[in-house]
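Record filed below.
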Amino acid sequence: MANIWYFCIRIQNIIMGRKNYLILILFLLFVFTKIEASPNDSISTKYINGEFTTYCQLSYSTNDSIMNEVVNLFVKQMCSDIRGLFKWGLKGMSLSNEKDEILIFDFKETRYNRQTSILKGIGDVIVPGVTTFRDLSVDTKLTLRNFTSGRREVRLDLASSNLFIRSLRGSFYLAPKGKHKNGYLQVLATIRFAWFFDVFVTQKTYKTIMEWRIRQMLKNIKEEAEKRSKM
């Protein structure tokens, strides 16, 4: 239950800035119902005023220490060894120039500046039969937070807009199981696409190109922790 209300509070902070109280109430009711129906694993996306907000949650039963090791490795490779991350953390996410009918992503490299906490991602975005955006650079500020409860947050905020994304706020949470049966891997991401993509990416298209990838990432982290627990 605490996880549900934490999520609701996060969404409230996003929407209240727009003073859209009616949408806030409707959205919280939608999310609460959605998560209550599936307390362990769930994913949902809401489109409000040009922004897509996705919440995804996967439960895990692996030892917390192992899960923390896997999360540490994911963050480390995300900053300095993206090719290594493709072997497990980004596996099956079609981010390395795999064929796709809607959008093709070719994620090439990442560079992390420890002084500024800026993570730079470089890659191509291809719209088959329409156009190709070469060497797009996405700069995000990386923030890591550890809470006294054992909960962890890995947050990415877009540092500057580009041809693909106008705004981005994304947080990955590790909610440890402690003495409970399960812990949780969670993602809360809000994204607004830029010019061409804002028109091209409809609500239906978003589910096809983004939503499943978020869930796949959490699944990869969970499976890596499970594999390590059996060693």
Remarks:
- The CA atoms of residues 164 and 197 lie 7 Å apart.
- Residues 1-9, 11-21, 28-38 have pLDDT under 50 and may be disordered.
- The chain has one domain: 60-229.
- The first helix runs from residue 2 to 16.
